[in-house]
Fold these 2 entries.
Entry 1:
Amino acid sequence: MKILTTPRMERCIGCNSCSLACARLVHKRLSWLAAGIRIMSTGGLSTGFEARSCMACDPAPCAEACPTGAYSQRKGGGVIVKKSLCIHCGDCAHACPVDAIYLDNIGQPYVCIHCGRCVPFCPHDCLEMKGFSKETSAEDSEAVIL
């Protein structure tokens, strides 16, 4: 299984190319509100940026909180999203321990599905897809996921 990681965020200039790529290519919308990855300032331009995306929890609290089964556990961590089952209740977003599920103005949730389509759009190579297995130690998994 591969997950999206952000190993070189010190290079990030906050251009949001990854967010726009996610919104356009994955969700077929042209809005930062429709992206599964968000770039945020860590306190100003001189302090850098952080990428906020799904941490590939296993078990995923958002999937457990979803009353309709729109969010289901992905093998190895993260979730599979079936938008047709979503009732826009927001329970998934409230259950996420890292605030990585974003609700747009009508309550449609957006989460990183670890597809990697954003990676080639980062001009400074801040993002990458990495293999991850359950055999990896807790310390290693924190390094991979962050």
Note: The mean pLDDT is 88.
Entry 2:
Amino acid sequence: MDNISVNKLVDSYESHLPREVCLNVAKFVVNEFKDKKIILEEYIIAINNLMVSEQVKVINCTGTLLHTNLGRAQTEISFNGHASNIEFDLSKQKRGERNRYLTYSMNLLLGSEGVCFVNNNASSLFIALNTIKKYKDIDSVIISRGEIVEIGGSYRLPEIIAETGLKLIEVGTTNKTHKKDYISALKKNRNALVLKVNRSNFSMSGFIEDVSIKELKKVTDDYGALLFHDMGSGLVVEKKFLEKNNIDYFKNELHVQDSIRDGADLVMFSGDKLFGSIQAGIIAGGRELVNSIKESPLFRTYRCSPVVTYELQKTTNLYLSKKEASIPFWHSLQITHEELLKRVKKISSKLTLDHSIDDNYSLIGGGSMPELKIPSPVISIATSEDRNILSKLANLETPIIPRINDNKIIFDIRSSFEADDEIIIDALKNL
């Protein structure tokens, strides 16, 4: 069979990818295969695989509000990428303090003296421990065995601590840790700090016991030790908002403000979980400790971009303005079952394919409160009738991601924007 040129191979299949990308793929395929038919087939497969791997907007119909694989908290990005005064003092027309307003407003929201921002919460813990190790001559970290966690992406707490050069000291047992366990460890390790970690991505029940931040503060004060709290999810919303909207899922979840008020020297949490904003790590607490982190040579390597800090600023303003319902995550939780059912019925009324409206449940996701199930009406399609539905939905101009449950394809729109309902309708009508 005649050889096919790289350029002809690229021209044989239309793609929106840059020509240089297509040429590179074509060169690889031509070198790997000899048969012309196979070359054409493999080229199309390779280009299609690249196109579906581009980062694009998708519609989250999984019902998981903080879906890690879909970017966790959804935000309506408003920063246009133009120049900004992120580190410029407009009143003095010269270089100024970075994130001055965001720092002020976040401290106001959290009740903290100091705050700084890094690119994710794993960075928060690492840079906090690595900096304080030198600043306060710390050599070890005391932590309950029941809080030694692993989260997605192979993040293991002991490995992060090991990277800082600090010694990990485990106290208590998996299910029970007492105040006396911390006291015993502090007596033997006078240069240790105490780290409490929120078990956000798993739950324990039954014969369990742990020590609160308030109790731990009394212990660490007695021994002149620091108390850090890695809160992970980062709940900051006002309790009045939760009560007003009958959202009782968080009654046993500690607020960031409570941890600071109860005495944690530093708290750290994610920006894209229960805070409901963009990916970031937020470190708050005593002014002196936070400033030492900001002055660390490593801090610049973890520093957030203007896009991130702008979105954090916008979200913080919404909390302070008592407009929590304008934050997409909280809006999704605020929606009642009845309101959601109206949306579901409206979509259902415009569909011709066989489906049903069922009672099901949504999840928080993002490693937050895995045991929580939020009652939600959903649209269900039997998988026996799928006709490659999942593949067709994934290859739309705006891909739609449902979930599979009990041999059904489930469309749970609690996790999608109402503005996208027409896109969902058009997609399902054309299957």
Note: The first strand starts at residue 59 and ends at 60.
